[in-house]
Design a protein that fits this description.
This is oxoglutarate dehydrogenase (succinyl-transferring). With 939 residues, the chain is α/β, with parallel strands linked by helices. It has 32 helices and 24 strands. The chain folds into four domains: 133 residues, no CATH class; 319 residues, Thiamin diphosphate (ThDP)-binding fold, Pyr/PP domains (Rossmann fold, 3-Layer(aba) Sandwich); 249 residues, Rossmann fold (3-Layer(aba) Sandwich); 129 residues, Multifunctional 2-oxoglutarate metabolism enzyme, C-terminal domain (Rossmann fold, 3-Layer(aba) Sandwich), CATH 3.40.50.
Length: 939
């Protein structure tokens, strides 16, 4: 084949694109092509000299020249002329690839045209020694979409129209040849030029008119109030409408939207159909909902059913705090839950849409984590459509020199090889064209795609901010800009699409509707009943003490244990794992105590067969950080990394609920936010996030503060997320000891969350089952002792699983004469066992030890009843292993005082206050432990 090409090749013929396509295949997978060609390309690369080139095809281009020198059979030619013709053909191919790679840098993207566009020499034919004399010459177009050959002037015109007009495309960073060529073909075939009909153009004009008119109306009616205006980016509302309608046509039935402040009020009214009168009530301090705290209007979410040509689509705008991009993993988590509920494995029915600010998109690390989740097994959603409202000024006063180190704010998306479509916000049609391309790409590849909507911000960061202070040049340009609506209306008037009177009529109709507090058109469906909708009413208004039976008959436990301790025939377990699995059969039979790992399995297995799905994620969740869980088993004889993995809890019965345990990426913030979003949309599923060590949750504190502990009181959002936080002072140093119990207790109020610290295996069984069986959906924080996970002293007899319930307080089981007890020690967590051992070693008979297993909501009645058992005790001593300024002491002291009798005094025993959560020296740890145990045991 290669010899035939050498004999017959001429770069004006059909072989140039053939060789180029062959080289594309070689770059993607050398083994996929003929060995002779592979050897040829290998040699070309070795002789390239290793010099850095702007185009990756350097070696093949040079080979084109050499191939062109071969004489054609039966022809006598001018070698010099042929060589020059070949050089120019290669130059044209390089010019084409240069536009694909660099064309966006010369695109007309900035509505303000305030910065000089740096010349890009590679986009100039002269850079390749192509002159005006070559413009009429026919050249082969390679794999450029369109005719096989064309005059250079036509090729250049098509390239500039495609890559350098109001749309700029970045796709050359995509390593998949199929994906990259799909993007190229999509835009090249259409020349990046939308072809919308008259009615579509009118609809776009109505959308940008609505966006602008609403902002101006609010500006006059509510002078000085913050609303984070969209003015300057009104095309975004046309884009959202086009996205909703286009997604509906493609069969999408739900869309979950996450966005921060800029333009949010406009989206609420003009996209989701919130009544203007309801928005006005919020401006006037008359909220439409009655919540304990509520939130500002530009944080609130909303849901609506919107008609599309293919049927209704349900839109949900997620509630969002001021931490901007933190809502993004919450949204994709919610989408994943909705897809799971529908059985939507490829994301065809539920679509996530994330709207970003330019500085926030690249500046806040949560986006790196969210992108990193996008293609992983436990978190993928079939791709997210990202829209960046790029107002070119960042958050308040910054400019690109200060807020990023990359050329574009969208460069972070290249980490997942997402195509980026830059578009001029002054051109609503181009913006909507970009939306169509994004939807088509996502449908084809189930991957993320980014639209960079380059616009401006008419006002400051908010309406009370004076932007001229820091951006005088930019805002002089903005002051002279007529506005997106005016420019687009003038264009359509010139095209004859609308008249002046019709365009002005859109404004007047919208203003009159706002005066009535209504919409111009009915955009929402008020009586549509959705499939897969969740009924949260059954979880509303129920007290945390609502009784529920969590015990399970032993026969059921034995049957389920047989299922989850069985492996496929020939499946070889690691010896240590096989020992754990075998011991679990002994546990359920009552021959040995049940440990925490087995207790978890029993809880999950029973819930799964009762119809409750279970999802567990964390950095080592399959095995368990402390080698205790082993919910995922690995065949020791497997030969491929993606084979020989077995999850027994997925094979309990044919009609069991879904079970997933997944080892997450190493990013606590994004993963915990994802799981919060998931749990909020899946109340019938036990959703667990497990920290590798409890203090690792520090990296996700914003999720805990602004969503988990306050989402219900601010937004009325119920969430049953469970957090497992390993905790315990075992001499492992500052970072591997404390889960920062005090932080969670400080956030407790209004029965917002539950905080438990179980000391026995049966407790974890009952609390996990209680979390699902009780008609209450509150976040559950489990402060989990690392030491007790496999400790025999913390194992529970099987009888505690077949009867009983979660005990909020555990009284002293020692044989004490209650009347002789002089001191009652109250504690939480594994320190109980240290205290019990110290008491036994010292043969103390007049000190009782009571455990609080639930720190919040505080079990006042149970604790009071236990203390009342010791009428002669004059001291109540709180003992904790955390330093005095940490742990539960300062958060529950007032509660302890509330259960004491008037003659008792309250004391503290524990480590002294410390700036560090724990010491890093074992000798010092041991000395501290001995000291406070002595203090606790000395009357």
């Amino acid at each position: 084949m290669m010899k035939e090409l050498e004999l017959n090749s001429h770069l004006f013929g059909g072989n140039a694109p053939f060789v180029e396509d062959l080289y594309e295949q070689y770059l993607a997978d050398p083994a996929a092509i003929d060995p002779k060609w592979r050897d040829y390309f290998d040699k070309l690369q070795q002789t390239d000299g290793g010099n850095e080139r702007d185009i990756a095809r350097g070696p093949i281009e040079e080979s084109f020249v050499r191939l062109a020198r071969q004489p054609r059979l039966g022809a006598v030619r001018d070698v010099a002329a042929e060589r020059e013709a070949s050089r120019k053909q290669v130059a044209v191919l390089r010019l084409i690839d240069a536009h694909r790679l660099l064309g966006s840098r010369a695109a007309d993207l900035d509505p303000l045209k305030r910065m000089d566009v740096a010349p890009v020499p590679e986009l100039d034919p002269g850079h390749y020694q192509l002159s005006s004399a070559d413009m009429a010459v026919q050249f082969n177009c390679g794999n450029l979409a369109g005719p096989e050959s064309a005059p250079l002037s036509d090729i250049l015109s098509r390239l500039r129209q495609t890559y350098c007009s109001h749309i700029g495309i970045e796709s050359m960073h995509i390593t998949s040849t199929r994906e990259r060529m799909w993007v190229q073909a999509y835009f090249e075939e259409r020349l990046s030029t939308p072809q919308f009909g008259v009615e579509q153009k009118k609809r776009m004009l109505k959308q940008v008119t609505a966006a602008e008119t609403m902002e101006q109306y609010l500006h006059r009616k509510y002078v000085g109030q913050k609303r984070f205006s969209l003015e300057g980016g009104e095309s975004f509302i046309a884009a959202m409408d086009h996205l909703v309608q286009g997604a509906g046509r493609e069969g999408v039935q739900e869309m979950v939207i996450g966005m921060a402040h800029r333009g949010r009020l406009n989206v609420l009214v003009n996209t989701l159909g919130k009544l203007p009168r309801d928005l006005f009530s919020e401006f006037e301090g008359r909220p439409t909902t009655d919540l304990p705290s509520g939130d500002v209007k530009y944080h609130n979410g909303f849901s609506a059913d919107i008609p599309t040509p293919a049927g209704p689509i349900h839109l949900s705008l997620a509630f969002n705090p001021s931490h901007l991009e933190i809502v993004n993993p919450v949204v994709v988590g919610s989408v994943r839950a909705r897809q799971q509920r529908r059985g939507d494995k490829h994301g065809e029915q539920v679509l996530p849409v994330l709207v970003h600010g330019d500085s926030a998109f690249i500046g806040l690390g949560t986006n790196q984590g969210t992108f990193n989740l996008s293609q992983t097994r436990g978190y993928g959603t079939g791709g997210t459509v990202h829209i960046v409202i790029n107002n070119q000024v960042g958050f308040t006063t910054s400019d690109p020199r200060d807020n990023r180190s990359t050329l574009y704010c969208t460069d972070i998306a290249k980490m997942v090889e997402a195509p980026v479509i830059h578009v001029n916000g002054d051109n609503p049609e181009a913006v909507c064209f970009a939306v169509e391309a994004a939807l088509a790409y996502r449908k084809e590849f189930q991957k993320d795609v980014v639209i960079d909507l380059v616009c401006f911000r008419k006002h400051g960061h908010n309406e009370a901010d004076d932007p001229y202070v820091t951006q005088p040049m930019m805002y002089r340009k903005i002051a002279a800009h007529p506005g997106v609506r005016k420019k687009y209306a003038d264009r359509l008037i010139a095209e004859g699409v609308v008249s002046v009177e019709e365009a002005d009529g859109f404004i007047q109709a919208y203003r009159e509707a706002l005066d009535r507090g209504e919409h111009v058109e009915q955009t929402t469906l008020t009586d549509y009943k959705r499939n897969f909708a969740i009924d949260f009413s059954k979880y509303m208004g129920n007290h945390w003490r609502t009784p529920v039976a969590t015990a399970v008959p032993q026969a059921d436990l034995v049957r389920l244990t047989e299922k989850f301790t069985s492996v496929p025939e020939g499946f070889k377990l690691r010896n240590t794992v096989e020992k754990i699995v075998n011991e679990r059969r002994e546990m359920v039979a009552g021959n040995v105590g049940v440990d925490f790992g087995m207790a978890e399995h029993l809880a999950y297995a029973t819930l799964l067969t009762e119809g409750y799905a279970v999802r567990i994620s964390g950095e080592d969740s399959g095995r368990g950080t402390f080698n205790h869980r082993h919910a995922v088993l690995h065949d020791q004889n497997r030969e491929k990394w993606n084979e020989g993995v077995y999850t027994p809890l997925q094979h309990l019965s044919d009609n069991q609920a879904h079970f997933l345990v997944i080892d997450s990426i190493l990013n606590e913030e994004a993963v915990l936010a994802f799981e919060y979003g998931y749990a909020s949309s899946a109340p019938e599923e036990l959703t667990i996030w497990e920290a590798q060590f409890g203090d690792f949750a520090n990296g996700a504190q914003v999720v805990i503060d602004q969503f988990i502990t306050s989402g219900e009181t601010k937004w009325g959002r119920l969430c049953g997320l469970t957090m497992m936080l390993p905790h315990g002072y075992d001499g492992q140093g500052p970072e591997h000891s404390s889960a920062r119990v005090e932080r969670y207790l400080q956030l407790c109020a209004e029965h917002n969350i539950q905080v438990v610290q179980p000391t026995e295996a049966a407790q974890i069984f009952h609390v996990l089952r209680r979390q699902m069986l009780r008609p209450v959906r509150k976040p559950l924080v489990i402060i989990m002792s690392k030491r007790l996970l496999k400790a025999k002293i913390a194992a529970s007899p099987i009888e505690q699983f077949t009867s009983g319930e979660f005990r909020n307080v555990i009284g002293d089981a020692a044989q004490l004469d209650a009347k002789k007890v002089k001191r009652v020690i109250v504690c939480a967590g594994q320190v109980y066992y240290d205290l019990d051992n110290a008491r036994k070693e010292r043969e103390v008979k007049d000190i009782a030890v009571v455990r609080i297993e639930q720190l919040y909501p505080f079990p006042t009645e149970e604790l009071q009843a236990e203390i009342a058992k010791y009428p002669n005790a004059r001291e109540l001593v709180w003992v904790q292993e955390e330093p005095r300024n940490q742990g539960a002491w300062h958060q529950i002291r007032h509660r302890l005082e509330g259960v004491m009798n008037p003659k008792q005094v309250l004391k503290y025993a524990g480590r002294q206050s410390s700036a560090s959560p724990a010491v890093g020296y074992m000798s010092k740890h041991t000395a501290q432990l001995k000291a406070f145990l002595d203090e606790a045991m000395t009357l």
